[in-house]
DNA sequence: ATGTCACAGTCCCTGTGA
């Protein structure tokens, strides 16, 4: 089973790239973030013509998350429920595995209210995962807007006092993985520098100024059968790329 | 340390978010 997560930074703008990429990489399940679409505009037919069932949780201008699968798609859950107005999480069961596609709030700055929202949002996700059926394999993937380790930051000195690396954010991510999830890239390739996001500005991609903030978190049963994880850097190149590259995980059939 | 991109509305530029 091939599983991918990709923040596409507008599925409307990115659809030609996404379509080509699906044909080339042929993931079984792909988790998408920042579709920036209403549900009405989501290209269900486009996915279907490529052999994918898809489900979307959108709000229009901002956010928006989706799951596309060619191994079945059932039991969809959108958002956290009461009072959750931003479309940042969707879950579904595909091929016997429960998938979550997550777009964690950015946080903006340590003294910005949005930062507290980010921590609360991660806590809500942790609560949700803590309540799961422990017999069900789970993949929690997406744009976490947190770089788990200094190795995941091109210049840790420069990020002192910034979001994405602060202790509370890393602790919140640790609480999430503490429910029984493993950061698969850090587990399989612990010494690899594997950035997933590069700012559009300053030629950051070509200068190697990146962060690893897009993650696949998996339960132990899936970790045991994981064979490979890599960043599809080619998707960050060329015409009209997203500022994020996909992360692709491969698993021996479960 | 900000050289870009995408969105909506004020609609061919500007403010916002990343």
What percentage of residues falls in helices of 4 or more residues? 10-25%
Please report the number of helical segments. 7
What general form does the structure show? globular
| Total strands | 14
Q: Radius of gyration, Cα only, in angstroms? A: 17 Å
Separation, N- and C-terminal Cα atoms: 8 Å
Low-pLDDT stretches? none
Mean pLDDT: 97
Major sheet: 6 strands, mixed
How big a fraction of the residues is strand? 25-35%
Helix-strand topology string: EHEHEEEEEHEHEHEHEEHEE
Structural class: alpha+beta
CATH superfamily: Endonuclease/exonuclease/phosphatase
What is the name of the CATH topology?
Deoxyribonuclease I, Chain A
Strand order of the largest sheet: 3-4-2-1-14-13
Defining key terms:
single chain; alpha+beta; Deoxyribonuclease I, Chain A; 7 helices; 25% helix; DNA-binding
Question: Would you kindly provide a written description of the structure presented here, covering whatever features stand out?
Answer:
This protein is α+β, with helices and mostly antiparallel strands. It has a single domain, classed as Deoxyribonuclease I, Chain A. Helices cover 25% and strands 26% of the residues. The chain has seven helices and 14 strands. The strands form three sheets. It has a six-stranded mixed β-sheet. α3 (113-130) packs parallel to α4 (167-177). The longest helix is centred in the middle third of the chain and has 18 residues, at 113-130. It is globular and about 45 Å long. The N and C termini lie close together (8 Å). The model has no long low-confidence stretch (mean pLDDT 97).
């Amino acid at each position: 089973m091939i599983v991918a997560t990709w923040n596409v930074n507008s599925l409307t703008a990115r659809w030609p790239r996404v379509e080509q990429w699906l044909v080339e990489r042929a993931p079984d399940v792909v988790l998408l973030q920042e579709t920036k679409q209403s549900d009405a505009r989501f290209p269900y037919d486009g996915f279907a013509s490529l052999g994918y069932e898809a489900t979307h949780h959108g709000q229009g201008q901002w956010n928006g998350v989706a799951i596309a699968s060619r191994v079945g798609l059932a039991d969809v859950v959108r958002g956290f429920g009461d009072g959750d107005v931003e479309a940042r999480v969707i879950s579904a069961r595909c091929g016997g595995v429960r998938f979550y596609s997550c777009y964690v709030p950015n946080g903006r700055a340590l003294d910005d209210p949005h930062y507290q929202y980010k921590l609360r949002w991660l806590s809500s996700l942790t609560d949700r995962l803590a309540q799961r059926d422990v017999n069900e394999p789970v993949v929690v993937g997406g744009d976490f807007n947190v770089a788990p380790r200094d190795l995941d930051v091109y210049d840790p000195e420069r990020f002192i006092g910034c979001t994405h690396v602060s202790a509370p954010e890393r602790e919140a991510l640790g609480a999430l993985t503490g429910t029984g999830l493993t950061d698969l890239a850090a587990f399989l390739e612990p010494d690899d520098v594997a950035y997933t996001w590069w700012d559009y500005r300053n030629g950051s991609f070509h200068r190697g100024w990146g962060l690893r903030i897009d993650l696949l978190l998996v339960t132990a049963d899936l970790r045991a059968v994981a064979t490979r994880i890599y960043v599809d850097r080619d998707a960050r190149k060329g015409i009209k790329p997203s500022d994020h590259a996909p992360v692709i995980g491969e698993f021996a059939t479960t």
